[in-house]
Every structure is written in C-alpha cells, then in structure tokens.
C-alpha cells in the first residue's frame, strides 16, 4: 500500500501477511473496559470487529461473549458495572432495552452501545452505528466491474440489521454499475451447510462473484474458493478464509470512535453522543486484499465512488 | 426414612461429582477451581439481587418444566417448548402492540391470556397430530420448533417491526412495548418481578390439576394405560390434545414472562429460537426431569438450574472463563444426576437386605396373572 | 418459474439436496440401529458436534482428511461408550440423558474450538469423486455420481444397515431386545451387550456424520450443526425405523431445502417470503408423515431400561 | 433328574418361596399346583436362571449346579414355556427359534437350517407352524406351539410349562396333552403348572401343592380328588359348583342386530351377529379364542366401530355408534378380557382404579376439586363389599393378585348399577377362591334383573353359569341353545366349526 493509505478509509494488505490490524503497544487510556457481545469473540464478523478494535487501542478488555440471549447479556453488563469497570461496551442493538434500565443505576459508569442511532436520552450512554450500506455500495460497484456474467450472488442471514444495510448498499452499487445481484437469505446466522448450498445455488444460477454476511458465510467463502470465484466480505477482514479470492472486505474500525469516547470519558463526559462509522470518518475501511490482482482502473473507480459517497453526490439507496 | 434421605443425598452427590469435572476443566483452562466455585455460588446466590436474578432466570425453566410434567403424565413428550415459547411471546406481544393504551389491570391479563393461547395452540397441533393422525410427537415438535422460529423472523422483520427500524438499521425487533404490560417488580432494587410468582402459581396449579381434578385424573389415566382409560369411557384423543395444549400454554406463558419481564420490554430475534428463549424449552425439560416430573419438585429444580445459569455468567465475568464451559457443565450435571438413580437403588438394596432378614412380613398375597 | 424447470437446474438442485441430506442420513441410520435396540439417543447433535470438531481439528493439524474421518469416528465411538454406560449400566432415563449429552457436546466442542483453534480456519474439504462411467450418465450422472466419498458411504450404508438389521444375527438380536428384551434374555441373548453394541454403531455413525459435515464444508465453527442431530432423530420416526425410510426422509428434507435455496438464488421467491420459505422442509416433513402415517409402531421397548427384576 | 432343595426367595415385602423342595424324574409329569401368587413361577424362574435364590441348592443328575442365567439353564438342557409368552412379535417364527443360537453362517442368520430342523420337530410332535410368518400374526395356541418348539429345538430334556392351558380351548388342551405325553415317553421330564384341577388330575404323575410360598404337600392323582386338591391349595373347603336359583326373565335389555365388525387385520371379525340378552338371564358365548368374541365385546362397549347396517341397543337406546362413555351412560358395565391391559391401570392405586369410570360424578367434587374424604368412604365401601384384599386404598394396583384385581374391576363396574353386564373371561387366570366369588356375583346380579353377557373360553364356566349358550365360530353365532339342551360334546363340536375343523 501507499503512504497516504494510513488512517484512511482504504487499505491494501500486503500479500502474505495475515492481519491488517496493528496492535498498539501503548494503551491509549488507563480506563478499564469490558465488552459484552452476542457471538464468539473470534467469529470473523460482528463481535470480532469490536474485540480487534479495542485491542488495536492497546487495551486488554474483559470479555463476556456468546451472550446471544438478552437477559444473560444484561446480567453481564450489570455485573461489570457493579464491579467498577469504567467503560462497558454493550455490543448489540438488542441490549438497548436492558441498558435503559441499567445505565441510570450506575451514573459513574460509561456505557457504549451499538449498533444504534440514539442514546435513548441517557447521558451516560454513547451510541454507535455503522453505515454498512456505504461500504456495501462501493464493493457492489467493484463486484459489478469484475463480473463477466453480470450476475452476483449474495448470501445473507435474515433481511435485517446491518446485514440488511450492507445488502441494500451492495445491490444499489452493483445495479448502478449494470450488474444484477441475486440475494438469498438462509433464515439463519449460523447454518453453514445452508449457506454453502445457497452459494452453490448462486454459482449454478450463473453468479461469478459472491458476497455475504454473518458467521455462516464461512461456508459460502469455501464455495467461492472451490469455484475460483472472487469474494467480498464485510464486518471483519475475511482474507484468512480465502487468501487468493477475497477481493476486499468492509471492516468496521470501531477504534476510531472508541478513541474519541475514551477521551471524553477521561474528560468527564460519560455519554450522550451518537457516533456513526462512515467512510468519511474512516470508521469504515475498504480493505483490499493485496493478493488479489484488481485492475487499477477498477480500484480507482472504487476510490472515486468513496469520494462520491462522502461528498454526497452518490446515494447508497439505504 | 433412609429412602427419603437417599433420594436427596444421591442426586446431590452426583451433582458434586459433576462439579468436580467442572473444576478439572477450569484448571485445564488455567484458573483456580476454588475461585471458580466461589464465583459461581456468589453469582447465583451471593446477594439479594443475585438471588432475585436467579429466580428470574429460573422462571421460564419452571414454566416449561411444569408443562413438561403435565404432558408427560399423559405420556406425551413435549420437545416443542422452544417453539411454544416463541409463539406465546409473539401472540402476547401482538396484543400489547395492538392495544398499548389499555390500563395495566386489563392489559396484563390480556397479554397473559394471549401468550397462553398462542403457546397452547402451538402445543395442541402436535397433540392433535399424535391423537388423530398417529404422528409421533418427537418428530412433530422438533419440526414445529423450526417453523416457529421462521414465523418469528418473518413477523419481527415485517409486520411487527419497530417503525423506527424500518428506515433505520432494520433490526428485527418490535418497538419497546408499553409499560402498562410490564410485569411489576416485586422487590425494588432487584429484578424480582411478578413472573416469578406466576411461575410458582402455575406449578401449584398444575399439581392441583393433576391430582385433585377429574381432568388431571383423566390425563394420568391416559398416560399410564390408554387402553384401560378408553375402556372406562375416557377419550384418549381428547386427553392427549388437552395435555399438549396445557403444556404448550405453560411454555407460552414462559414466552410472556420473557418479554414482559425483560428489561428491554420488546421482542428481538437473532434468527434462532435460543436467542430469544435461552434454550429454556430444552432446559425446562431437564428441570422437570430433575424434579422427578412432579410440578412442585420442579420449583427447586428450576431454581437450581437458574442458579447454574447466573452462576456461570458470573464465572465468565470474574475469571474470564469462556461461556461454553457453563453449557458443557450443565450437560455433565444432567448426565450424572440421571445416572444416579441406579446408584440409589444399589445402595438401597445393600441396606435393605439386613432389614428384611429380621422377619419379612407378607402383608398381601400379590399375584401375577 | 420456467427458469427453474430446466434440466440442468433440476439436476443441480437434486445434487445439492443429496449433499445436504448426507449428514442427516448418516446420523439417522445410526440412530435407527440404536432405537431398534430400544435405546433413544437425543444427544446425537452433541455427538456430531464433538466428532465434527475432532475431525476438523485432526485435519487441520495433520492435513489428512482420512485421519479426520477416523477421528470423527473415534470420537463417536468414545461417546458411544459413554452413552452405553449411562443407559445400559446406569439405566438412566434416556430422553434426559440424551439432552445432557447434547448440552455437553454443544458446550465442550465450542470450548475446545475456542481454546485450540480460535478462529474459523478453512481446511481442505472432501474432494468430489466422479464415479468412472456412471458420472457420465445423462442427468443421473451429475445428480448421483459426483459427490464426495462420505456421501457415497452414507448411501451405501442404507442397504448395509438394512442387511445388518434384517439378515445378521446381531441385527436379529438388536430387533429382539428392542421389541421384547425379556424374551431375548430368556434365550441367552445379552440385552445389555446387544444394546451397548447398537449404541456403539449408532454413535459411531453419528461420529461419521459429524466428520462428513465439517469435512464436506471444509470449516468448523461453534454449534456447526444448528440442531441437525435433532432432525436426524425425527427422521428416524419419519422413516418408521427402516433404513430406506430414513433415507427417503433425509432426501425429502435435503431436497426441499435445496429447492428453496435454488428458487431464492433465482429470485423466484420474494425476499419478504424468505423466512416463510425457510420453514418448507419442516412443514413438508410433517405433512408427508400425516399423509403416509398408518399405524407405524415404534420398537416396543424403546426407552425402557432392562433388568431382570 | 432334578432336585431343588430348600429354595427360599424373597421379594420386597413377600417371601415368594419359603424353604421349598421339589424334584423331578425323567419321563414324568410333575405338576406344581397353587393359587395365584403361591410362588410357582418364581420357583421355576429360579430353575431357569432368571432369579437367584436367597437360599437353597439345585441338583441336576445328582450334581449341584449354579444357574445364573437362561444360558446356563439352556446348557443344562432345561427349557421353559413361560406363563407370559417370551416371544418377539415382530420377528418371524424361525427368528424367534433362532434367537440366542449360534449360526453356521456367521455373521448372518441361518434361518433356512433353522426352518428345516423346525419342520422335523413339528412333524415329530404334530406342532405345525409356518416358520416364515411373523409371530404377531399367530393365534395364542400357535404361539404356544412356537414356545414348545423353541425348547425342543434346544434339545431340552427338562421342560417347564407355566400355565400352558390358561389360554387354550378344550380341544387345544387335548392336543397339547398328547404332545406332552409323547415327550415324557421319549424320556423327558416335565414340570406342569396349572390351577385347573381337572387337567392336573388328567395329566400328572405327581402333584406338589404350594400355598403362600410353602409346600403343603405332594401327592399322586390316584390318591387325590378335586375337593382334596382345592383344599390343599386354598387352605379351606371350597364349593366347586355354584348354586343358581331360577329367575324369571324380563324384557330384552341388550339387543344386537346384524352386528358386523372389521378386525385389526382388516378381515371380517364379527359377521352379522343377532343376539338378545334379557333381564335376569346370563347368556354365555362359548368359542375358541380368536373367533370374534373380543371384537364383538369391544363393539358393544363402544370401543370399536361396527359396520353400517349393524345395530346395538341397550335398554332400547341405540348405541351403535356411541363412544364408551355414552354406552356406559346407557347402562352398560364392562369387564374386559385382559384385566391389566384394558381393565385396570397398574400404576394407579386401588382407590383411583375404583374411581376410573365415575370420576366425573359431581358428588365426589367440592369446588371442582376431588373431595378425598367422600372418595375414600366410597372406595372403602366397595373394597369391603367385594372383599378385595388390599392393605390400603393407596396400594398400587399392580401389586395385587390377579384375582383381587378382577374383584376390584367387578366392584367398580357393578357399582354403577348397570342394566347390562358384559363380562369377558372374568375368571381367566384367577384362583379358585376368587373365581368362586366372581361367579357368585354374576349370579346375584342376574337375580336382580341385570342382563349378563358372559364371554368365556372355559366351557365349565359357561355350563355352570349360563341360561342360554351361544357358540361363536369365525365371527358367526353357529349355535344358540338353552342350558338344558346343551352338552359338552355338542358345544365342543360347534366351537370347532362342526365338521370342517382342521386338526392342530
Ligand atoms: N378426555 C376426555 N374424555 C372423555 N370426556 C371428556 C374428556 N375431556 C373432557 N370430557 C368431557 O367433555 C366435557 C367438557 O370437558 P371439560 O374437561 O372442559 O369439562 P369439565 O366440566 O371440566 O369436566 P370435568 O369436571 O370432568 O373435568 C365434559 O363433559 C367432560 O366430562
Ligand atoms: N419380580 C418380582 N418382584 C416382586 N415381587 C414378585 C416378583 N415376582 C413375583 N413376585 C411376588 O412373589 C409372589 C409369588 O409370585 P409368583 O409369580 O411366583 O406366583 P405364581 O404362583 O406363579 O402365581 P400365578 O398363578 O398368578 O402365576 C407373589 O406375591 C408375587 O407378587
Ligand atoms: Mg375439567
Ligand atoms: Mg405364575
């Protein structure tokens, strides 16, 4: 990658390295941090993006992961607050209701909650949300450009949440570039065999580019590998799953937001603000895979699209 | 007397052996097992708040478990708790969404009834399939669990979605429900809410139903011997459907408690049933069997498993032990405790022998025939 | 719809259904043997998870798929010993101990994965093996004879399990102890040993199912099965405790799922109806059984522990 | 060839065998006689390795042996035909015979060889059964033959037959006895268990009587009489023939018109039966098991649908299509043929079983809940009135003796003041004392104007009780005669389908 890609919304990994994350050696803050998250911390998706982000800030958080059930998460959130943790990250929209009950009981604790576009009027809660449609749109245009058949396959879990935003953005981007996206939702976040067969079905229906969201895409990525088909990832960097075929991943860099939040907490402001991860604030980063040879003009087109989204001349349709 | 004591000592002993396994795993994970045990006990029963939380976590298990007791007495194995919870929750949520302004005294009973009707309906389907079409209930309930999840996904994504989410991030959840339907807190400063009382009441009611009413009498008769029940004028088909409907309605009630006793006061799906139910539909079966399929014994049993859940949560938080350990430990406890029944019999036989030698009396000339 | 009813699509759909059916079939066949002996194992899913992890990890470490399959089988057999001790020696209630096994498998496989692997790492998946000659057959060739070896093994096991149950002494003993253990016992057939062996066969095949699943996909992640083992148990009831019936059930289940996926991939199912379509396999399985269910009797001693007194 | 010395066996709360000694010589039939629960089966299960004795020893050919499993017993050439058949219904006859035997074609079964040898044995003793048929398709008599073949196939020298005649017709019993005689002539020793005195006297070489687990004596037929044996069994004098006062019959209370029923195997089980039972009479239905009696009874009781065109009336009410509850409401009381399958719930306690039919009765309820005090009084009254021997009302029914369970069912059924009583095999497998009592009850109800339909395979019972006798054969009533005109021979012929009955 070139120099000006540092701390920007685009990155290109060096082929052969396995992580695009540089862990800071010095922690940016002395605050104690806990994360409560719904899936496994190494899910190569939603939860991992947060765990990696905190690590990138040099902080070693306490983690309660795998709490897909709201009540269990609420217990953990309350427990961390109770034990004196300074910042509790409630990484799941579904935890918001519980947070509305818990946060007022711990006015000294700062809670960070997402994905959400509101703080529910609580002044010790920060909220964050990714504009996943933005990266989706960019990758949609790239996908359209490299697709020869003009048919792209998308494997989603259920049509909701940031998965839905990503799908909407991706479809809008691809269609703006003249390709057609066949979208199938498997009805499950974790059903790998189903995602695998869904991807196979897309290939059978003529797709020569694949993408997808949620943990179960590990199966779909294998189908891409088996058929030598390019893949686009989202949430976390998925290069490790198909080093030759992942064209790019839209990665959530929560650390951009978190660094700011930690500063505020240290300064005594415990919440009240909503952060959005966008291409503009470098919270969303399109991480191109250095091992995949993408035509220069296509990549430049992507950069232009990013600029267009940032200056508002392109609407992602979401 | 000795029998009574054994009945309590042996399963508890088995549970202790199971925890020994847990301790070994904790050591393997590089933590101190004593700390682990302390963290579990402390998390489950350490403070007033935690006791309250344990009771709250136990309530869905209790309700499902009581339903299992009722169904099992009629010899129907209800593995459909997960689906029945989901449908009960959806029905009650729909009511709360439809008439949000209704005063609490009216709305609370309304959502409870809706949840029970929803769950009862979802339970009656496999009941009717079994009674009238000979479809095995293990098959149909497992399949209906899958169907219920997709019904939930569909409704929370479409018709019942929070209007704010339609244009926003499209989280599949309902809007926050009216506080008029929230289960009131019983002990301020804790999570203890009316759901716990509902759970215990349901257990007592099920006990009364099974052993004090003609309907319960019929269910038990059908469970023990459908042929004799039929010959004496009891409709076996109707009883099976009734048993499953009752069982389902109790699971539906668990769904109500999960929604209206939650802090978030809304339904949200992660695409799976367990995301909403915490697998209460399965763990409730365990609680019921641990309680010897007796509604009243299911109360302490569910409380114990609720404690295991809250304790494990604390264990993970305090020692940073991965959460799957708790699930695995849960399984080991179940396996050890169910296996202990046989051990109890062996011990009983050991101590009975000398007793009998002091002059066995034959009170009645029994017979085969 | 015309888009769907082309020969090549139908063939692809069928092939996809066959692949999806494979783990159900393996686990279901094993469970059939177990249930025929009178032992219900609701823990199949847990066994599959453990053996899937074992197979995955072994392949990851050694690079050998064959060793992976062996590891899956081995884990299944170990769990067979455990379940045999629980149900035959300790005579525990089968429904509940199965759920215990399930919970243990679910948690422990997840724990092992987190501790020993951490992040889903792809492995080589089982290669497709075209059967010389047969795979050239028009239509049938692609649908039936271009699969991985575990799929062939699963379908080959259908007649073998039927043969085992109906024609061998062991199978006769299995049927006898599942139907009337007292009678078998009175003729010197060891009920305990026979059931133990049937449990070993059942769990071993659940182990193979786990291996087939993870190695077929080339990946593992926590709760990989998503309750697949429970459906396999249900399919045993669907199949009326017969190998062929279980195969039909597994195929029905797999093919309906495949059809739905194919229709989605061709946008023939509107996105709004996506969830509703996802229930199709479950609904159809129930409907099919309502239609065909006569008076199918379960093995009479199913779930009943045996002792002489 | 066999000696059992000082055998003691305890079960929780019961001493089933108390210092029992028993021996058997080659070539003889040694009968074990005793009431229900006397300990006959237990003694033989000990011999067969199914139970371990608490004390005592077993000697074969003079040498002490330990038999810890049926395999041991079979190795010692002991065979047993169990009281409750030990057959696997879903397996074929040949498979049932082959179970537990080594196969020549391991790992596969060798059913051809088995079938062949089976046929040889069958031919030798006239025990014809098709080896390839599944056992569930066989009649009771055929199943018994399979049991005997199983033992012979294993070259049993010592054969135990536990109540083999309880389920057979007179003709079948005769056939069986011929076979048994052939076996003793070949030098085999037989232990025969029964409480049918006539048969015992007929067949036995020696008779040992058990009462409450203790041997009360051993005798030979020449020195015994029916009365003497009965007294040894029961411990008091018993009357073997009931008194039956004449009663004037009233109007028809149970009317069957052209009743046709399809059976479990989709064949016509009951074929156009017409029958009336009047107030104050007992009509007996005689017949070999499997000729439609069970289906007929179930249809009358509302448990099995009749074909269109049939009509069943109870006290003029049409109950052809009614369910069991409605039929009972119309006045029917029903004592089913298999008491533990259809009559009572083993896991229920005595009180609960007494409540089974009328648990809805509002007088047992208070505020919608059971009023246990009233229920207790009611049940206690029934237990006393019908002298059901039970320690308490809370005793599990399964732990009562067969006779007491039968009395319990009768108490429950008669308590509803029926106008029609349908009793199927009411004394099957019941000891003499209880049978005597049950017969008395039937006669008493008849005197009170109840219409009694008695279905029984025990010709003695029919002859002793019935006012009119119908014989069922292949679903039809082939003979209907007044008691006065009935002869044992005539009925026997009719039961056999007159001329066209095939042997075996
Ligand atoms: N399983 C059954 N078999 C036969 N009849 C039944 C059965 N269940 C209910 N009934 C009858 O159907 C009617 C309505 O049933 P339900 O149980 O609601 O009535 P109920 O008034 O509660 O009766 P009960 O007081 O006997 O419980 C009653 O007459 C009842 O006796
Ligand atoms: N497995 C057992 N457990 C407990 N008690 C038993 C068992 N088997 C028999 N008994 C009891 O032992 C006693 C003798 O029973 P057994 O079956 O030997 O009587 P029997 O003479 O064969 O009677 P029947 O004529 O009814 O067959 C009875 O009181 C019976 O209840
Ligand atoms: Mg009622
Ligand atoms: Mg006996």
Structure report:
The complex is a heterotetramer of chains A (318), B (369), C (309) and D (504). Chain A has nine helices and 13 strands. Chain A is of the alpha/beta class. Chain A has a seven-stranded mixed β-sheet, sandwiched between helices. In chain A, helix 1 (46-56) packs across helix 8 (254-266), helix 4 packs parallel to helix 5 and helix 4 packs antiparallel against helix 9. Chain A is globular and about 55 Å long. In chain A, 67% of the residues are buried. Chain B has 369 residues and is an all-alpha fold. In chain B, helix 8 (194-212) runs antiparallel to helix 14. Chain B contains 15 helices and no strands. Chain C is 70% helix and 2% strand. Chain C has a two-stranded antiparallel ribbon with strand order 1-2. In chain C, helix 1 crosses helix 6, helix 1 (7-36) packs antiparallel against helix 11 (243-265) and helix 10 (228-238) packs across helix 11. With 504 residues, chain D is α/β, with parallel strands linked by helices. Chain D is built from 17 helices and 22 strands. In chain D, strand 11 and strand 12 (268-278) form a beta hairpin. At the B-C interface, helix 6, helix 13 and helix 15 of B face helix 4, helix 10, helix 12 and helix 13 of C. Residues 213-215, 218, 234-235, 238-239 of chain B line the site of one adenosine-5'-triphosphate (ATP).
Give a brief outline of the structure.
The complex is a heterotetramer of chains A (318), B (369), C (309) and D (504). Chain A is α/β, with parallel strands linked by helices. Chain A has helices at residues 46-56, 70-82, 96-102, 132-146, 161-176, 192-204, 217-227, 254-266, 296-311, and strands at 10-12, 33-36, 62-64, 87-91, 110-114, 125-130, 151-156, 180-185, 209-212, 231-235, 246-252, 274-277, 284-288.
Strand content of chain C: under 5%
> Which compounds are bound in this model?
adenosine-5'-triphosphate, magnesium ion
Q: Provide mean pLDDT of chain B, rounded.
A: 87
Q: Quaternary status of these chains?
A: heterotetramer
The CATH topology of chain B is given as ABC transporter involved in vitamin B12 uptake, BtuC
Task: Assign an overall shape of chain B.
Answer: globular
Q: Please count the helical segments of chain B.
A: 15
Largest beta-sheet characterization of chain C: 2 strands, antiparallel
Q: Find the count of extended strands of chain B (DSSP E, 2+ residues).
A: 0
Number of E-type strands of chain C:
2
Rg of chain B, Cα atoms, Å: 22 Å
Task: Quickly give the CATH architecture of chain B.
Answer: Orthogonal Bundle
């Amino acid at each position: 990658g070139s120099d000006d890609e540092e701390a920007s919304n685009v990155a290109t990994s060096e082929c052969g390295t396995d992580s695009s994350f540089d862990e800071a050696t010095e922690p940016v803050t002395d605050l104690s941090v806990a994360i409560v998250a719904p899936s496994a911390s190494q899910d190569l998706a939603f939860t991992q993006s947060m765990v990696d982000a905190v690590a990138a800030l040099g902080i070693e958080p306490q983690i309660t992961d795998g709490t897909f059930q709201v009540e269990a998460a609420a217990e953990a959130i309350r427990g961390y607050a109770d034990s004196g943790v300074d910042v509790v990250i409630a990484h799941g929209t579904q935890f918001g209701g519980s947070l509305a009950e818990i946060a007022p009981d711990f006015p000294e604790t700062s809670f960070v909650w997402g994905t959400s576009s509101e703080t529910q009027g609580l002044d010790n809660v920060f909220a964050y949300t990714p504009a996943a449609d933005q990266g989706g749109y960019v990758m949609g245009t790239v996908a359209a450009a490299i697709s020869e058949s003009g048919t792209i396959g998308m494997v989603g879990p259920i049509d909701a949440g940031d998965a839905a935003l990503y799908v909407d953005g991706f479809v809008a981007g691809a269609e703006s570039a003249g390709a057609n996206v066949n979208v199938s939702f498997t009805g499950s976040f974790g059903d790998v065999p189903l995602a695998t067969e869904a991807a196979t079905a897309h290939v059978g229906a003529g797709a020569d580019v694949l993408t997808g969201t949620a943990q179960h895409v590990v199966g779909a990525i294998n189908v891409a590998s088996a058929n030598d088909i390019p893949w686009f990832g989202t949430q976390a960097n998925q290069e490790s799953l198909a080093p030759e075929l992942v064209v790019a991943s839209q990665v959530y860099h929560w650390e951009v937001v978190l660094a700011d939040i930690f500063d505020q907490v240290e300064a005594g402001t415990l919440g009240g603000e909503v952060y959005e991860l966008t291409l503009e604030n470098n919270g969303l980063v399109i991480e191109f895979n250095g091992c995949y040879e993408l035509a220069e003009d296509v990549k430049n087109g992507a950069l232009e699209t990013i600029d267009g989204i940032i200056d508002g001349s392109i609407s992602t349709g979401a | 007397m000795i029998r009574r004591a054994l009945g309590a000592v042996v399963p508890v002993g088995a549970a202790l052996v199971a925890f020994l396994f847990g301790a070994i795993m904790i050591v393997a994970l590089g933590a101190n097992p004593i700390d682990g045990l302390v963290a579990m006990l402390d998390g489950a029963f350490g403070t007033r708040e935690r006791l309250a939380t344990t009771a709250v976590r136990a309530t869905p298990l209790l309700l499902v478990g009581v339903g299992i007791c009722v169904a099992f007495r009629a010899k129907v194995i209800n593995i459909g708790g997960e689906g029945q919870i989901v449908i009960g929750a959806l029905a009650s949520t729909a009511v709360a969404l439809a008439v949000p302004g209704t005063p609490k005294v009216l709305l609370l009973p309304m959502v409870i009834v809706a949840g029970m009707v929803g769950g009862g309906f979802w339970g009656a389907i496999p009941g009717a399939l079994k009674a009238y079409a000979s479809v095995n209930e293990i098959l149909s309930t497992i399949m209906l669990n899958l169907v219920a999840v997709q019904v939930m996904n569909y409704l929370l994504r479409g018709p019942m979605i929070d209007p704010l989410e339609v244009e926003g991030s499209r989280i599949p959840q309902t809007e926050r429900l009216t506080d008029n339907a929230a289960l009131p807190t019983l002990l301020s400063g804790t999570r203890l809410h009316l759901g716990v009382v509902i759970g215990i009441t349901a257990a007592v009611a099920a006990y009364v139903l099974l052993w004090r009413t003609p309907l319960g009498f019929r269910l038990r008769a059908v469970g023990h011997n459908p042929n004799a029940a039929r010959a004496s004028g009891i409709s076996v088909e109707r009883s099976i459907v009734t048993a499953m409907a009752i069982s389902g309605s109790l699971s539906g009630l668990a769904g109500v408690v999960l929604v209206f006793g939650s802090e978030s006061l809304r339904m949200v799906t992660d695409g799976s049933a367990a995301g909403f139910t915490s697998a209460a539909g399965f763990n409730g079966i365990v609680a019921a069997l641990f309680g010897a399929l007796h509604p009243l014994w299911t109360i302490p049993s569910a409380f114990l498993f609720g404690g295991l859940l809250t304790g494990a949560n604390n264990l993970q938080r305090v020692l940073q032990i991965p959460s799957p350990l708790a699930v695995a430990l849960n399984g080991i406890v179940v396996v050890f405790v169910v296996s202990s029944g046989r051990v109890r019999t062996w011990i009983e036989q050991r101590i009975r022998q000398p007793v009998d030698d002091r002059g066995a009396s034959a009170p009645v000339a029994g017979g085969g025939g | 719809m015309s888009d769907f009813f082309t020969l090549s699509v139908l063939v692809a759909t069928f092939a996809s259904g066959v692949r999806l059916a494979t783990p159900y079939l393996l686990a279901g066949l094993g469970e059939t043997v177990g249930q025929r002996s009178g032992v219900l194992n609701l823990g199949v899913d847990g066994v599959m998870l453990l053996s899937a992890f074992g197979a995955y990890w072994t392949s990851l470490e050694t690079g050998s798929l064959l060793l992976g399959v062996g590891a899956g089988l081995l884990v299944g057999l170990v769990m067979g010993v455990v379940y045999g001790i629980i149900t035959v020696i300790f005579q525990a209630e089968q429904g509940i101990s199965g759920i215990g096994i399930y919970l243990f498998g679910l948690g422990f496989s997840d724990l092992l994965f987190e501790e020993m692997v951490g992040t889903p790492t792809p492995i080589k998946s089982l290669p497709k093996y075209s059967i010389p000659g047969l795979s050239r057959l028009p239509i049938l060739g692609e649908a039936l004879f271009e699969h991985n070896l575990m799929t062939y093994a699963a379908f080959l096991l259908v007649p073998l399990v039927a043969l085992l149950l109906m024609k061998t002494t062991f199978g006769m003993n299995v049927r006898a102890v599942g139907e009337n253990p007292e009678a078998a016992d009175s003729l010197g057939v060891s009920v305990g040993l026979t059931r133990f062996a049937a449990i070993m066969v059942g769990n071993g095949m659940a182990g193979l199912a786990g291996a087939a699943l993870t190695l077929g996909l080339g990946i593992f992640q926590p709760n990989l099965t998503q309750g697949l083992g429970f459906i396999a148990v249900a399919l045993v009831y669907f199949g009326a405790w017969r190998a062929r019936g279980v195969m039909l059930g597994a195929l029905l289940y797999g093919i309906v799922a495949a059809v739905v996926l194919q229709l989605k991939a061709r946008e023939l199912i509107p996105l709004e109806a996506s969830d509703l379509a996802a229930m199709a396999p479950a609904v159809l399985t129930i409907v099919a059984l309502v239609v065909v269910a006569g008076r199918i009797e379960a093995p009479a001693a199913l779930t009943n522990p045996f002792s002489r007194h | 060839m066999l000696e059992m010395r000082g055998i003691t066996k305890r079960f929780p709360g019961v001493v089933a065998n108390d210092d029992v000694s028993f021996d058997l010589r080659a070539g003889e039939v040694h009968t074990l006689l005793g009431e229900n629960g006397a300990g006959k089966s237990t003694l033989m299960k000990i011999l067969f390795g199914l139970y371990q004795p608490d004390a005592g020893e077993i000697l074969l050919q003079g040498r002490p042996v330990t038999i810890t499993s049926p395999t041991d017993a079979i190795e010692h050439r002991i065979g047993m035909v169990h009281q409750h058949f030990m057959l696997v219904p879903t397996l074929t006859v040949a498979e049932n015979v082959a179970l537990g035997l080594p196969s020549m074609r391991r790992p596969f079964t060798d059913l051809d060889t088995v079938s062949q040898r089976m046929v040889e044995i069958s031919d030798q003793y006239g025990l014809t059964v098709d080896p390839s048929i599944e056992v569930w398709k066989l009649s009771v008599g055929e199943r018994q033959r399979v049991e005997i073949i199983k033992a012979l196939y294993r070259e049993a020298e010592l054969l135990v037959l536990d109540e083999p005649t309880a389920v057979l017709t007179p003709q079948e019993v005769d056939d069986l006895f011929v076979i048994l005689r052939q076996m003793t002539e070949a030098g085999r020793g037989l232990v025969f268990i029964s409480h049918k005195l006539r048969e015992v006297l007929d067949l036995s070489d020696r008779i040992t009587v058990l009462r409450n687990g203790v041997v009360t004596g051993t005798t030979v037929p020449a020195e015994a009489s029916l009365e003497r044996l009965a007294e040894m069994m029961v411990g008091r004098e018993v009357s073997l023939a009931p008194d039956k006062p004449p009663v004037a019959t009233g109007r028809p209370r149970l009317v069957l018109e052209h009743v046709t029923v399809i059976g479990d195997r989709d064949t016509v089980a009951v074929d156009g039966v017409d029958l009336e039972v009047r107030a104050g009479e007992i009509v007996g239905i005689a017949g070999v098991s499997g000729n439609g009696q069970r289906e007929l009874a179930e249809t009358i009781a509302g448990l099995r649908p009749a074909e269109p065109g049939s009509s069943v009336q109870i006290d003029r009410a049409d109950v052809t299509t009614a369910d069991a509850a409605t039929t009972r409401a119309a006045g029917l009381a029903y004592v089913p043929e298999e008491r533990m399958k259809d009559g009572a719930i083993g896991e229920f306690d005595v009180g609960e079983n007494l409540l089974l039919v009328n648990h809805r009765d509002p007088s047992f309820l208070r505020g919608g809940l059971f009023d246990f005090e009233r229920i207790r009084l009611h049940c206690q009254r029934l237990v006393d009135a019908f002298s059901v021997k039970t320690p308490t009302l809370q005793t599990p029914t399964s732990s009562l003796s067969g006779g007491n369970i039968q009395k319990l069912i009768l108490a429950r059924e008669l308590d509803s003041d029926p106008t029609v009583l349908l009793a199927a095999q009411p004394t099957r497998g019941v000891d003499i004392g209880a049978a005597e009592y049950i017969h008395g009850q039937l006669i008493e109800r008849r005197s009170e104007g109840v219409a009694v339909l008695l279905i029984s395979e025990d010709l003695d019972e029919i002859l002793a009780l019935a006012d009119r006798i119908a014989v069922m054969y292949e679903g039809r009533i082939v003979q209907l005669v007044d008691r006065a005109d009935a002869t044992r021979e005539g009925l026997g012929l009719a039961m056999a389908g007159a001329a066209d009955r095939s042997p075996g």
